[in-house]
Amino acid sequence: MAAIPTQQTASRAGAAPVHTAEGAEECARARVTLLGSSLAPGAARAMVRAALAEWSALGLPGTRHLTEHLAADALVVVSELVTNAVVHAGADVEVGLQVEEDGTLVVEAADQHPSRAPRSAGPELPHDPAEYGRGLPLVAALAEAWGITYRPGTKTVWARLPAPGAEPADAIAAGAAGIAEAVARAGGDAVGPAGCGERSAAYAVERRGTPPAGAAGREADGDPDRASGGPTGPGRRRPRDREWLGRGALSFLAEASDLLAGQLDEDLVASLTGQLIVPRLADWCGVWLEDEALGRGAWSDDSGAAVGARLARVWHAGEGYLDELRAALEKDPPRPRDPWRSGPVGHPWPGEALGPDAPYGTALAYPLVAGGRPLGTLVIGRAGPPDTTGTPDTCDGSGFPGFPDEITGLVEDLSRRVALAIGAARQYARQATISAVLQRGLLPGAVAEIPGVRSALVYEPRDKGGPSGDFYDLFPAGDGRWCFAVGDVQGKGPEAAVVIGLARPWLRLLAREQYGVPDVLDRLNQLLLDDATEAADAAARALVAAGGPPVAPGDGPQTRFLSLLYGELVPFDGGVRCTVASAGHPLPLLLGPDGAVSTVACPQTLLGVLEDATYVSETFELRSGDTLLCVTDGVTERRSGSRQFDDGDGLAAALAGCAGLDAELVAERIRRLVHEFGPRPPEDDLALLVLQAE
């Protein structure tokens, strides 16, 4: 087979170039290069789905042999190969797909680290989920043969998936769509093609009689003609349980992982869990979440009930049963258990809550544990006959009527992924709460009212989950004086919060100690320099104490720069005297009643840069109708393509159009113009302060 040239795609996993069929006279082929990130497996699966559906529609050679089962196997194999490459090579991954004339699918994943062998999955410990995929044993179970090709600078892992000759053909387009729908429409964007290269394996493994994963599920009892949706009757099973468990379950887990991993709200995770499970795996489910505010010690009361848990979500195949089911589950919450005990245990059947058609059934409770910490419980149920011989409290999945072992094992795998998603969502919520509290502490609780001056403020941090680099203040300084500040710290997040937490209190302290505007900037500049020097010295001492090399000058923590516009207001009869200075900050603009706009300060050096910097101020008067506009660079540097909002004095032109408006309307108009300047939302924090003489 001749080598096919590689088509390079966008550098972001999930980009969607147009699919083509290259070399249709030989075979249907596709190749795509994906960024080595967590998005790569999902993008690879999307490429496989889209390519197979398109090739089948075009009737390319070999596609008439393709089936839904073969497509599901290909999705699982490409997911495992790409996951191994991303986790263990950490480089871009080149994914190839080919359909041979007999319908055999060939899947490849190539990376740039040939010295690193692919990972084979070992035994999985309880509550230690396989974060790196299930490994090559799963590929070996599904493939006719697989192997590894080593070339200079490249390692390619490939697998051959034969088409079953006895199964119906020409079903791939509908099959691929059905697989995506099974995970609540969680599929990614299509990713585009090129060819698949010649293979000369360094070693290969043939599969000899290895049954497909989950094949035992096809031997379970069941009635394939039973309609889905709603509870099944005694002795019945979901349609195609046996068939779906053998192949589609593996793709289901892979896609469910992608769907859950992107959620940052634990209640949304609980809701998605219900939609994933019902009606595919169970008639109903409930998700209990532990209340972190009560702590681990509040998990049970005297009767053993989980007091520290709340029923976050209830889902049923029939919506008419939701209220009754919720009430029944809340009356009988899951009992606490050893968090290290894996697998399901029996849970009381809710009985009459599900109506006369489901008097009996089996309910199972799965612990949701991540990082050794219990996060809640997943309860699922299926209607069925009462068990007279089983042991419904076993933890190995056996003896549960209505639930084949494959179902209980699949839900256990899913519950681990749900627990990881809940843990991640809670961690994000904790960080967002800390950031919000920190942000509130860095900004004034209220803006001071100044006699004879109207004021208006716009403050829009871009990152809602972390401290902003912009800040403002307007406060009384005593003796008939008021001071204002609009600043911007280099960087964002905790480091910016440290600088703001240092600057704001010192501004207020120096102002109330009667220091003038230039003196305040001089002292604040020295304070930032001293603080950065102390931090660098401390880091150097810590590194030397740990046995590291001495830190050379300039190699330690860098000085934290601050741009600041600072001013003082003194009202008098007929107006307000304003003294202002700008340290590396956008200059303030003065708007007169006639629409004339002028700058009222001179540019000077950033704070925290030069040891011997000295600052000067300018004084002017705000008369009736005059408006002073102070902004951060999130306004002046707002981008639309290659243009910025303040190009060609754009901010001054926008302010000139605000003549005759009061302070609040001026602030709102400038904010709106900034937002409308580009097609996308602003990429930087926005802060602007308007001061207007009455």
Structure write-up:
Helices cover 31% and strands 22% of the residues. The chain contains 13 helices and 23 strands. The strands form five sheets. A six-stranded antiparallel beta sheet has the order 1-2-3-5-4-6. The longest helix has 38 residues, at 405-442.
Structural class: alpha+beta
Main sheet summary: 6 strands, antiparallel
Q: What low-confidence regions span 5 or more consecutive residues with pLDDT below 50?
A: 1-25, 119-134, 166-239, 296-306, 387-398, 553-559
Strand content: 15-25%
Quick description:
This protein has 13 helices and 23 strands. The protein is α+β, with helices and mostly antiparallel strands.
List its traits.
694 residues, six-stranded antiparallel beta sheet, alpha+beta
Topology of helices and strands:
Elements: E1 28-34, H1 40-58, H2 68-89, E2 93-99, E3 105-111, H3 136-142, E4 145-151, E5 154-161, H4 172-181, E6 203-206, H5 241-261, H6 266-277, E7 284-290, E8 309-316, H7 322-331, E9 345-347, E10 361-370, E11 373-383, H8 405-442, E12 453-460, E13 470-478, E14 481-489, H9 493-512, H10 517-545, E15 562-572, E16 575-583, E17 589-591, E18 597-599, E19 618-623, E20 627-631, H11 633-636, E21 639-640, E22 643-644, H12 650-656, H13 663-676, E23 686-693
Antiparallel strand pairs: 1-2, 2-3, 3-5, 4-5, 4-6, 7-8, 7-11, 9-10, 10-11, 12-23, 13-14, 14-15, 15-16, 16-19, 17-18, 17-20, 20-23, 21-22
Helix pairs in contact: 1-2, 1-4, 2-3, 2-4, 2-5, 5-8, 6-8, 8-9, 9-10
